[in-house]
Amino acid sequence: MFENRLTSEAELREVYRPAMDAIEAKIHSSLDAHARAHIELSPFVVVGTSAPDGTADVSPKGGPPGFVAVLDDNHLAIGDLSGNNLLDTLTNIAAGSGVGVMFFVPGNEVTLRVNGHACVTTDEAVLDACAVRDRRPKTAIGVTITEQFMHCAKSFRRSGLWDPSSWPAEGSLASLGAIVADGMGLDAEAVPAVEEMLEQDYAATLWMPGGDA
Question: pTM here?
């Protein structure tokens, strides 16, 4: 499978035209006013990291708009709220992974991507800056920015992501309760109990800092 692989930039450039000068001009090594505005309004990001074995991981993070703290023009911090405790992203960063963060603003077709070096920090001032709903995280992902740039609207226009008329009908996908029940080898009768367990967990831990009991 996957024959005829392209393994160098030179081979890729035989297929793809060069980027336009205007595209190159929007790449910056630090945050500008437009990037700061985007981050301030973003309630949802995805964080990409890589493991030492070369595999990759992408994790969703969400909070009130502006939950990602801008510390200065070259540094961001993402407070760690409760999750699944697999710690994939944090483990990759602790092992030396770089990071890519993509910021989404609902209804806006432009996305902001920030790339850089990453660390897991317990710095007191950083954690204070990352507090959400008066809940202070125990750790944060610190990002030292190497580049930031805005993506154009092509992917959103192709996907129709913000267009409700393009959304699948309700019930087209199995609920998380059904997925968990299948993974545990439970029958369909167990699904309501699993879904109730998930809802109770949401209610109890939604705004809890990662690592809390």
Answer: 0.94
